[in-house]
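(Structure overview)
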Amino acid sequence: MSASQSGEERYIRKRLRRAAAVSLAFRLCRIFPVRKGKVVLWTLEGKGGFACSPKYIALELLRRNREEGSAWKLYWIAGGTAASAGRAEFPPEITLVRDTFWSRVWHLSTAQFWVGNTRTPLGTKKRRGTCYLMAWHGSIALKPIGLYRGEKFSRIARLVSEADSKLIDIALSGSRWCTRMWRKGLLYDGRIEETGNPRCDVLLAGAAEKRRQLRDAYGIPQDAEICLYAPTFRGGSQSTLRSVDAAPISLDLAGLLDALEKRFGGTWYLFLRLHPQLAAALEHMPLPEKLGAAGGPLAGRIVDVTGRPDMAEIMAATDCLITDYSTVIFEGFMTGQPGFIYADDFDAYTADRGTLMFAADEIPFPVARTNSELFRHIQTFDAGQYKTRCAQFKERMGMVDDGSASRRAADIMEKIARGESVG
């Protein structure tokens, strides 16, 4: 046995011992009753903020409390960035609970519903009378997940995935493609409801208001154009303790803004938004000196929005999206904004992560491996052709997002709460 295999074995044994303790704690908490109408929500294993699909499901449940006399009681597991942000980003009707061992176990044990976008800790036990709604944080994607990763899918990741998927009662899907992919991607063979992605509702029914709000928040003129650059994380494939890498930004941001202004006109600003896993690991990644130097050519035109937890509302406010392998490009294009892929480390990334889910000619977005290639794609961008390719891709994927996914998810929860069958 190699040193790496030995280390993996020790790490798995350690995780299994902890899982046994977690399971025991859940069993002890069975003395407490399940509370009807109690909903526990989380993002990014409890370390994320008020964001993604759990946020929009929560907002819909609160709307029903106010307008329809429902009695949902919402609790948000808040650790990491959510804990440091405090109450400010959360509605006052949501109770924040610290992501400590006993707090998590007790609240999950006494909830009628769980709504999460990532896995639960290994050893978690769900009681009869509790329904687990999985609103996965990804959708149509380039980067592979689960069994699609092949040998890159570590043993501990598989153990965690299999254990969590056995607890899920209903997984939400935004497309026929995701419904098929969840089987291997999430290692899940249970019920799937094609509701759409709740986090995408704001892209289809609320974008104009978010455009105004975010420009006001950062002092950007209302008539200015904004490009969002949102690279994903690197690393995370370890067979032991998982960690992500902080890769330097190789994109020529000054050249990017210049190319956008030459092709589309107007004054362009850039939003830089790091992946939550990278942001959580680094707390805050300072912008390279060339980006924000006082008096420099880009001063005031580069805005670090990594601290904003909700990616969907950022995409709703922007006019162009650039990423590498992130799923966000398959959601941001719902607004009709141009999308480009800048993947300068393609070979290294796929060697670590696994074969991508789509080839370059299967997606509607121009793909570049160098700055010059990206700028050439921008300069030759054909809006009509892009619109046609996007429409064809949506049809091929069977995308169902229409701005009402949160309502459908809440309808499912209400039916279950009343003891009615779903579907």
Residues 38 and 73 are 5 Å apart (CA to CA). Residues 240-244 have pLDDT under 50 and may be disordered.
